[in-house]
Amino acid sequence: MNSFIFKTGGDWDSTTLYNNGQEVPAMELLVNLDTGRDEYGNPMKGGIAIGGTITAYVVPQDDTSQQIGIFPGRLQLDFPRHSLVIENTHPTFAFEFTQVLLDGNDVTHNVMSVDIDVNAGTNEVTAAATIFKPHWFTSNEVATFDLLG
């Protein structure tokens, strides 16, 4: 089972990726999780429980034609001001067993999307998480967290 830990201080020199305690020289780390929307694309309560998709892999530096799947397993991402954990240890990687923690808070039932692309080859990094916050008497909220900022 994989246990990836990605850490960055905000620049390439402070960025590391480990899997099960071994450093992984990677060209790219990509995670795209989409859930929490109705058939028209509108936000809705439920997050992972209402279904969705996830793509998550690492492209190693020594073989850029290869994609190493992250799940089943655990991915911990530590940025300067935010942390994100995505875990799915189900043997067949069934989506409904995915758990998401943002800054230590369980957002599994409120997550709408997670988009991470750390690409050393293109020298580009994007990292964001969108969370749905339902309210009883006021308008619902959708908050997008820039994980890098």
Any overview of this molecule?
This protein is mostly beta strands. 0% of the residues lie in helices and 51% in strands. The chain has strands at 2-7, 16-19, 22-23, 26-35, 52-60, 68-69, 73-78, 83-88, 99-102, 105-106, 111-119, 124-133, 141-146. Strand 1 and strand 2 form a beta hairpin. The model has no long low-confidence stretch (mean pLDDT 93).
Keywords:
13 strands, 149 residues, seven-stranded mixed beta sheet, mainly beta, 51% strand, globular, six-stranded antiparallel beta sheet
Q: Rg to the nearest angstrom?
A: 15 Å
N-end to C-end Cα span: 31 Å
Question: Class by helix and strand content?
Answer: mainly beta
Order of helices and strands: EEEEEEEEEEEEE
Shape: globular
Beta-strand percentage?
Answer: over 45%
- The unreliable regions are none
